[in-house]
Amino acid sequence: MNDKPHLDVEALAELQDVMEDEFDVLIQTYLADSRSRIDGLKEALATADPEHFAKTAHSFKGSCINIGAPRLGGLCFEAEQLGKDATLEQAPAVLERIEAEFSEVAQRLQNFGQEV
Amino acid sequence: MKVLLAEDSASDRLILARLVSRLGHTVIEAEDGTEAVELFRETQPDLVLLDALMPRMDGMEAARQIKALAGERLVPLIFLTSLSGAGDLARCLEAGGDDFLVKPYNRVILEAKINAFNRMRALHQALSHQRDHIRRQNQQMLDEQRTARRVFDNIAHTGCLDAPNIRHHASPLSVFNGDVLFAAQRPGGGTLVFLGDFTGHGLPAAIGAMPVAEIFYGMAAKGFGAPDVLREINRKLRRILPIGMFCCGLMIEADFKHNSLRVWNGGLPDGWLLRAGGYRVAIPSRHLPLGVQEPDQFSASMTVLDAAPGDWLVMMTDGLPEAPNSAGESLGEEGVLSVLAGLKAGQEPFEALLARMQQHTGKPELADDLTLCCLQMVRAEAPEVMPDKIPESALTGPADWHCVYELREQTLADFNPLPLMLHICMEVPGLRSRSGEVYTLLSELYNNALEHGVLALSSEWKTSPGGFSRYYQERTRRLGNTDGHFIRFSLGHQPREGGGTLTVVCEDSGDGFDFTEYSDTVAHQQAASTGRYAGRGLEILRRMTRNLKVHGRGNRVEIVYDWWFPDAAITSGA
């Protein structure tokens, strides 16, 4: 478990400042990217491929950190560790929490975008 | 600046591309390692941002390939990573990364890093350009030196350095290190060798060498002796060289006919005369280098040494005694002497010195600024007919003329008239190919008139051991008083079918000497029996001329010399 916030509002505000009118494109890109990452994790789990699981989780972690979704990034880190240790027994549970957190983040990001 | 950005995560790519382009750079985006390498090859970016973990080819491998493609170009490579372990970060740098940037991206840090690498890149580029510039300039300098060397060689051809009795080592570009080595055969026989070492290096030294070469070869061919050549070199260098630049030199005039050497050393290491039986005579520097003194202060007085066929003369520039070994120690002149002292009978000093140098420096190649020359005394040969390079027409130049040239009193001591008289004779078309013979005729007549006529020196002295130097001392002493004396040359030439006839009458103011003894009866026996110089000199004249007459009390000698054009001689001989 981690007690990091769903969204790093400060980081997101800075991104908004940097991206200007492309901020919404960035959010949509992140969301689409993240969905394909989650599909990738599921696939790795189905084929029992811990290396692929770890790498996908790692990349997912990177984009979560950059976009300002620290709690989801933390979960991805847990998943990455499981893949690295090749102990995928607990992976389905972590993946479930990743999906739940992603829904939460997606919801909040949509709202964040609309606030502007 | 062109920045290549390789990152598989689309959202991360978007953020970073925006951050970089906001800094005013052009961004080229790649989605994985393979694409990054391809785009790098195509677009030649100035900086690369590379995600460490990517599909297809990961960042580490891409980094290796990009660094290989960049070659000498400095292309800073920054890894993008959310790796946190120190070991992972270290691996990025080992793969060729120059730095890393940790997610989440901080635009302040990103900007600072890009700017820092841009400065480094600019510095590297400036250094590379300077290096290339220096390389080009160096290449150009070497090309120029080679060209200059060819020009120099046209003036300072090898002369007779390749003669069998001369061994020498000189770097091909030694003239640019200030070393010069010239050797010429004198028109009447004998060899003139000059070894010089200019202060300084490069172009100034080479430029100073040019007139020295021209003076040496020009004057040697005209029959001038070593003192005249030295005086002229000193005068010229004194005039053209800046203060502080001069030429150390060693001049040798080897006379194989009389088995004597005249030597002059101004500033070079000791030269050595190696006689049979391991007997050595040093030739130390007794003069200031050339180009230092005003002409009226300059002394071209030569040291006269007796020598015999087989004796070696060794001369070197200071590059030889001073060459350092790996410990920075040099052989010194003592080291050179110990090599010469250790020579076995029949062993050549040249080989022994070079072998010792190679052993000393530990390198097969000798340094550039080291010149060594060894000259071996040989038996005199008959004057050879000089090959005539330019075919001469019989129609040009004076062929029928007469002149009288008289030298008086002090001038007898101060001036050598042979080059001037040789020059007059060489104006006759076709006679140039006989310059050696004509020089011998003139110099025998002149030396007889001066030494046995005016100075009344006895040739007996020359036959006694060590007498030659004594003879020269006495000669110098008596030249101090030539009051009332003269030598008069009457030269005349008439053309003949296929050649010409040169008539020379040489008269002097001396008491005369007993020529009758030689001229009437002795000539044939003389050559066979005693081999005394005066008799032999006269025999040479008799052999070379159609007619030799001695008039008066032995102080008026007349010769008639016939010559033919080379092809006419073949016709008449057939």
TrEMBL record, chain A:
The lineage of its organism: Bacteria, Pseudomonadati, Pseudomonadota, Gammaproteobacteria, Pseudomonadales. SUPFAM superfamilies: Histidine-containing phosphotransfer domain, HPT domain. GO terms for biological process: phosphorelay signal transduction system. Keywords: Phosphoprotein, Two-component regulatory system. Coiled coil: none annotated. InterPro entries: HPT_dom_sf, Sig_transdc_His_kin_Hpt_dom. GO terms for molecular function: protein kinase activity. The modification Phosphohistidine is found at residue 58. The keyword Ubl conjugation does not apply. It comes from Marinobacter nauticus (Marinobacter hydrocarbonoclasticus). It comes from the Bacteria. This is Hpt domain protein. Residues 19-112 form the HPt domain.
